[in-house]
Structure formats: structure tokens, C-alpha cells
Amino acid sequence: MVKQNVILLAEVLILALVLVAPVAADTLIANSATSQSAQVNTIVATPPSVKVINGTDPVSGVSVTFAITNGGGTITSGGSPVTSVTVMTGGNGVATLGSWTLGTTAGTNVNTLTATSGSLIGSPLIFTATGTPGAAAAIAATSVTTQSAPAGTAVTAPPTVIVKDVFNNPVSGTGVIFYVSSGSGTVASGSSTVTSDANGIATGGSWTLGSTAGTNQLLATSAGLYGSPVTFTATGTGTTAPSITAINPNSGYNTSTISSVQITGTGFSTTGAVVNMTKSGENNIPGACSVGSATTIVCSFPITGKTAGSWNVLVLNADGQSSTLTNGFTINSPTSSPTLSSISPSSGDTNTTVTISSLVGTNFGSAAGIRLRRSSYNDIIGSVSSLNADHTVIAGSFNLNNQPPGAYQVCVYNDASIYICGLTFTITSPYDTSTNSSVYFETNPTGAAVYVNGTKVGTTPFTYYNATPGTNKVLIQKNGYKDYGGYVTVITGKRVTYYAQLALPGADTTAATPVVTAYTYTTPVKTVTTIKKSTLKVPTTYAPATTAADSPVDPALIIGAVGIGLGLVVVRRR
After folding, report:
1. Has this prediction a pTM greater than 0.70?
2. Domains defined along the chain, listed by start
3. Each residue's pLDDT tens digit, 151-208
4. Cα–Cα–Cα angle for 122, 126, 127, nearest 5°?
């Protein structure tokens, strides 16, 4: 009977302890969105809220401190606006702010707030908010408002403004109108409304002053904004006569209209400038032109069928002042014979490919060809890589492989009947047989590729100059024949002949593809594997020890023991 009473007492005490012991909080989680957006200096739609839990169970009576950490603004929790406040969790484990008012600075996630509760998991929680600009309230200039330029030309700095809210945040999407109020100039935006961009900027574009010297004024307006209209002034200075300094290209063929002719200089009128080609006894050739600035004009001229020769180029400004570049443009005819004046370089080594950087002359045809000519030898046909717009400079190359040294004439062919030969190009030999060596390679059949030490040096038959003295590896390849490999011993100052009889591959008629790599002759190395007997002893395997089964314990005795212990603690405290 006593044992039963003791057990009952223990059970009652354990139940009481469970009922009165508080639940320990271990985690802090968000109970609302952690990122949102609102207009600057206004309250976000959802007040920040957190929840304290133990596992999944809510924990009440836990203090949570909310504090603004960036962007300014205030928070409330039943009282006046502050920047930091502590809120206790309710029965549902939730702590919520009354409100969060953002600061006055616009920007993505510039406003941050933290919720902190001791060392709980997840603490501190961070809440962010993007502040959007308020309504447009003011307009101001961001470019200079006073400047000068020659009359009839564009000012250096286009008129530009910025639109802001009452907190100086840039505001996009606001309409601004730029218009010339005096001076008879023009603005690129015309009468159109310009909308401020994401940075609050609106620009009227290029502002061209009137053709008369004096004051010009332009206004930028946006109804209802403080600072509107913004006034820009510019002084148009007296004009000077134009001056032409260069024309590019300065020649063309009379078979079609020539476009993109750029005329550079100073004092060009950006409104009303006219350009003509003139020649005594000929009608003027008018240009269709675009005046990019006071220093650049780009034109197209209809020169089809016009008389070949030199023409003057005339620029006439709107105020009547002009400039002429005498013989500034040359009209060529494809029937005109080409001329030659220089070639660079003017020499090249045999058995090399020489690149011609410039072959200079006149009247080169669009499909002009180049070649080297020497009496009693075949012409060396070159390759043209480019021809400039003036048809005066050719770039290209000549393959001098197996070509004998000596002096050659340079020829340019517009076609079979229109050509010129005149300049001298010298094929040189850098090889002195007293100090260098050569190998004459010959094969049967001919036309085989020869590789020396892995590098292709020519196609048979040919002489390989400046060979390295000593033993050199040779690989000869020709489609339809077996590869021929061997060695050649090069003797200093001597010419060695290397002959190879190529063999057919028998039944195998597959064409071999040459591989430009080192032809390596290797002797297989036999690998011997030695197996050694291990001297390690194999440990003896023992059966695992048998673990005795645990003795069962009466649960009633365990509960009784716990109850007695708790009872003794209570008695001792009394």
C-alpha cells in the first residue's frame, strides 16, 4: 500500500512540473514579408512582424527589439514614432510593429530594419524596403545656362534639366518642353515633349544658334514645377570664312556616284552650307551633303560620266562666305592607264612569301592584279589583299618559293590590255654557300611534300637553303604513296642531293593526308613487371565477443524512484 502511494505521489509531482514549467524559446522567424516597397516618407503596407517558436510551438512573453539600421524613417508600437522599440510576443508567439515609415531617400532596399531577440536562431531578422520617389516638384538645369558659339552653329553643351521630388530624389516620366524664345535658332527636340529618364534627366538635344550674331535664348518648361521655366542663354559670335583642310577620299572613278566623301576644315555653316565640284569649261557637280559640325561635311557626288581630271572643291556658307580647295578631287576613268610611283618593300628573299604593304600609283582598277616580270622567266603572279578608296594604293603579296634571285619589273594590270610595268623589285638570296648549306630534294614521282625535323620546307623538286648542318630527320609524303622517312646529313658549305623513290601502298589506295608534325622514330621499350612476395603477416581473425542481454527493469520501480527523489527535494526545501 505504501509503495502504491509513493508511486502515485511521484506521478502527480511530475505532472505538476510539466504544467508549470515555461516553454523555452529557440527560434525567431518572419511573420510578414521581409521585402516591400513604398513611396519615400510614407508607411509601408505591411508592418514588420516576427514569431518566436519552440520547434513548431509558439512561445509567448518573449521580448523582440525592432530597430531601424539604414535609410532613416521611424517605427511605432502603440506610442510616438521612434527608431527602436521592444515588443513582447503574445499568446500566438507573434510580435508586430504598429507601423514603419520610410526615410526620404529613394532607392532599392535603401531602408533596412532588424528584429532581434537574444541568441535565438534566426536573430536578427532583416527587413528591407525600396523607397520610390514622390511626385515631381521641382526642375533645375544640369548643363551650363550661359555659353557662346559662332552664329549659325550648335553650342557645345546641349540644354539639359533634372526633375526632382520635394526630397530631391530624381523623378522619371515627367514631360519637359524645350523651345527657342529668341535668336531664331533651333533645338533638336523641336516642339515635342521630352520625358525625364530614370535619373530624372531631360535634354533638348543639339541647340543651333541663329545665323545672326547676338543673344539667343531657350526655355525648358514643365507645368506646375518649382523653377519652371529654366532659362538658357547663348551668344552667337560673328562668323568667319570657311576653310577646307582635307578631303577623303580625294579621287574616284566616273563609273558611279561616289559616297561618304568627308570634307574637313573650319567655319562651315551648319545650316545652309553648299558644296560643289568645279572645273573650268565644265558644269558644276553639286554635292548632296550633311553638315555634321562646323568642322566636318560629308557628301555624295554624282560623277558618273564626268570628265576625268582634277576638280576644285567649293564650300559656300549661308552668309555668302566661301572656301575653295584647288584640285581637291581627282576624277579617274577606268580606261586611263595606271601609273606607278613606289613599292614597299622593294625586295624579298627567295623561298619566302613577301607581303607588299603599299604599291602606290594612280588609276588602279577595282579588279587590278599585280605580278613580277623578268625576261626569259615566267611571270610571278601576286595576290591583291586590298585597294584603297582612291584606287591609288594596293596591298598584297608574292610567293617567291623556288624563284631565282635577281631584278624584276613590277606590273599592275587593270585588264589584259590596260597595264603598266616599271618599278624594280629584287629577289635576293641570303644564302652564301661558303658559310651555309643546302639540300636538293628530288622524288619519283615529283610533287611530294618534304618535312625536315617536323617542318614542311617545300615540294619536290626544290633546293632547301640554309639547312642545319648535321643529321636531320626527313619525312616525305604524297597522296597515294607510302610515307618515306629517313635522315639526311647536311655538310657545311656543301649542297647535298636527297633522292627518294616513293612506293605504292599496294592494295591500299586510300589517299594519305600529310600531318605537319615531327616525324618521330621510336623504339618500343619492354616493360618488366616484378612481383615480390609480401612479408607481412596476416592477422588472426577472432570471433566477436558476445554481449550479454540487458536485464529488464520494472517501469513502476523507475517512476517510484523518481517520485521519491522529488519528494525528498520538496521536504528538504521546507
Report:
1. no
2. 27-132 (2.60.40.10), 138-237 (2.60.40.10), 257-332 (2.60.40), 339-428 (2.60.40.10), 438-501 (2.60.40.1120)
3. 889 999 999 999 999 999 999 999 999 999 998 899 999 989 999 999 999 999 999 9
4. 135
